[in-house]
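G., the chain you wanted modeled:
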Amino acid sequence: MIDENNLKTAVEEEQGTGNISFNVWKSYFLAGKNVLLLVLLLIVLVTSQVIISGNDYFVNYWTQQEALRSNNQPTRFTENESLYIYGALICLVILVNCSYFFYLFFF
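Predicted structure as C-alpha cells:
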C-alpha cells in the first residue's frame, strides 16, 4: 500500500522561476527549420490576419452601403461589384490558409 506522504513527494514537481534567455528562445524557434522558413511562416500568418480583418471591414462597409441603397441614396459599388469584391476576399483567405497548411505539412 502507498503511503500518503510518499505519494505527495512523488507527485511534487519543481518549478523554475526567472527569465528565459535569448539563446533558449532562439534554439526553440530554430529547432524545427531554418530562419527563412520561420520568417515565411510569420509573413503568411500576418498576411492571413490582414486579409481576414480586411474582409470584416468590407462586410461592415457593404452593410452600410446596402442601408444607403435601401433609402434610395447613391452608393460607391453596385450590388454585383460588392459580391465580386467579397468573393475575391474570401478566395484570398482560402489561398493564404492553404499556403499555411502546405507549409505545415511539407516543411
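The chain has a mean pLDDT of 83.

Shout if anything looks off.
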